[in-house]
Amino acid sequence: EKLLSMIEAWGRQDVDAVMTFLHEDVEWNNSGGFSPVIKGKAAMREALEAMASKIAESRWRLFDYTEVGDRLWMEGADEFILTDGKRVAIPYMGILDYEDGLIRYWREYYNGYLHTSQGKTGIVAAEAEVMLDRPAITGARA
Q1: Residue 142: inside a domain, yes or no?
Q2: How many domains does the chain fold into?
Q3: Contact 139, 60 (CB under 8 A)
Q4: Residue 48 included in any domain
Q5: 5-29, pLDDT tens digit by residue?
Q6: The whole model's pTM is what?
Q7: Which residues contact residue 62 at a Cβ distance below 8 angstroms, ignoring those fewer than 6 apart?
Q8: 80 SS3 class
Q9: Is 103 a member of any domain?
Q10: Do 18 and 6 contact (CB within 8 A), yes or no?
Q11: Which domain holds residue 33?
């Protein structure tokens, strides 16, 4: 399964491996509405490298997903330990549209307030914390 392999690669913060799953003209809306869509593989690499430089540990939990044709819907939670020691956890929903077997459009929907507030305090909000203990396909707590 391509999605699970990509999640494993990101868990290792292997940007080169993640890039192999992406279409040359990928469009990634991962901003929670705070910033413009990232367009193109070069811009995606730059964004992922910037993220990886701030993350000491990444645990991408995938709770469930379904596919219809070239579209995949997923529910999960991202949890990060940042290089400054702060912890951030954000429940999300995402949609991947594939073209030629590669991710062409990637849209994620999450509460941007959780992202910004936790990034400042390093304290995971109770409403996010409770989601982390759900049974997960990937990234389950040890």
Answers
A1: no
A2: 1
A3: yes
A4: yes
A5: 999 999 899 999 999 999 999 999 9
A6: 0.88
A7: 3, 4, 7, 74, 75, 76, 136, 137, 138, 139
A8: strand
A9: yes
A10: yes
A11: 2-132
For residue 89 the two structure tokens come to 């956890």
Residue 139 lies in a domain: no
Q: Please give the Cα distance from 60 to 8 (Å, whole number).
A: 8
**Which segments of 3-118 are extended strands (E)?**
22-29, 38-39, 55-68, 71-82, 87-99, 102-110
- Is the distance from CB of 13 to CB of 58 less than 8 angstroms? yes
Calculate the alpha carbon distances from 120 to 35, 65, 88, 132, 140 in Å: 18, 31, 9, 20, 25
Under 8 Å between Cβ of 106 and 94? yes
97/105 Cα distance (integer angstroms): 5
CATH number at residue 27: 3.10.450.50
CB 77 within 8 A of CB 89: yes
